[in-house]
Every structure is written in structure tokens, then in C-alpha cells.
Amino acid sequence: MQASIAATWQRHVTENRSALTIRTEAIGRGFERECYVHPENPDRLIKVNLTKRNKQSKREIKYLKKLKKRSLSDWSHLPEFYGTVSTSKGTGLVVEYIKDYTGQPSRSLDEYARKNGIEAYRKRLDDLKNYFIKNRVIFNYDMNPTNLLLRQKSPNESELVIIDGIGDVVFIPVLNIFKSHVEKKIRRRWKRFEKKLSGYRP
Question: What does the alpha-carbon distance between residue 5 and residue 156 come to, in Å, rounded to a whole number?
Fold first, then answer.
């Protein structure tokens, strides 16, 4: 199975063998990856692996490719995916840079909820949950308010976008072909996610 995942990763490595040179500082860093502004397109980001295992990136690219193959038409709560690219920092995933209507980078739900409380964003959370169920988009157990961005589309309109934690971590994903199974999984994981929101107060 590991060999299969590795093969999938290699198949999606960019056809352009000339590596992009990244000279800027990372704008974000997680346990497995760093995130940089694309040196040739300020509206895109490149997620570069910090470890050789590439576990998170392999899972994410596999799932995003699956969504595209399924012809998912509504990407409003997901960053657009543009494939992979070779860089001076290593191979990276190229995704949309989530920004507000002002052109500024969108901030996390965590940041907003610490200031205003989580209930101020209840409708946005309900919209996200319904989006996941309607489009059968699976998120993993790691989803939390820090990897959800609140994109301000206008002074009076906003939406949540998940930037990490997309895809499934189960060893036997065959059951995901059944809509009812996926819906139950999403609802179960959402219930667990809700517990992470209980500590936010205005």
C-alpha cells in the first residue's frame, strides 16, 4: 500500500523539471509542511514537505485529485488545487491563496472566535457542515479552528475554507463509495470537531 501511495505521488510530480527558486520566508509552518507564496503567482501558495515521508501531502494530493476526477463543481469551501511543482525547497503542492475581498490574506476562525466567540460564526459553520455532506467531502480528525479560514467575500458576506485536514485516514476506504456511509462519517467527525469549539467565549 505504501508503494502504491508513493507511486501516486510520483505520477503527479510536475512535468516541468526546472525547479522554482523560493527566496521568501515561509508564511506558515506545520508539523510536516511549510507554506510559501508562489514566486511567480502571488495568488497561489506552495506547500513544501519538511520530512521525507510526505504522508500528509500524499494523502491530500490523492484526495484532491479524486475530487477533480469526480467533477466537483463547487470549491467554495476548499482551496483550488493546481497540481505539484518542483522547487528549491523540494516538491510542493500548489493551491489557491485564500484572501479577503480587500486582497488581504484571510484570517483563521480561531482568531475571529477568540475575539467574538464561536456563536458569532454559527451560520458559517452550519454552511460548511452542509457543504461537506452535500458534496461528500471528507475531512480528517485533525480539523480545527486554526486550519479553517474565514474568507470575507464582501463587508457583509463570508465563508469558511478548510486549508488542511482534507481527505480520509482510514486503511480501507472502499466504503466511501456509499453516500450514506460518507454522510454518517462526516456527521460523526463533525460532532467531534464541535467539542473543540466549546472553549471559545466572546
Answer: 43
